[in-house]
Amino acid sequence: MDASQVFTVGQQALYTLLVVCAPLLLVILAVGVVVSVLQAATQINESTLSFVPKVLAAVAVLAIAGPWMMTTLVEFLQRTLQSIPGAVG
After folding, report:
1. Which of 14, 37, 57, 68 has its CA 20 to 30 A from that of 76?
2. Contact 80, 16 (CB under 8 A)
């Protein structure tokens, strides 16, 4: 296994990580911005008001996109493990 193969596997791993994490992070970001705007408009500075909606949004995204996320990660792991004999030999 030479350096180019290592970099290719690393690049594929980072891309898979980005694709899998993006929906969750984008939804939490959007919910955080909306809650922050509402807090600034109403001048309510309650810490749980910003925390609870983010947690609920994260749970909703994981419930909806969780199977797809798991399938994507399992497929990547299978491809990586199946490529080990070719990389070693």
Report:
1. 57
2. no
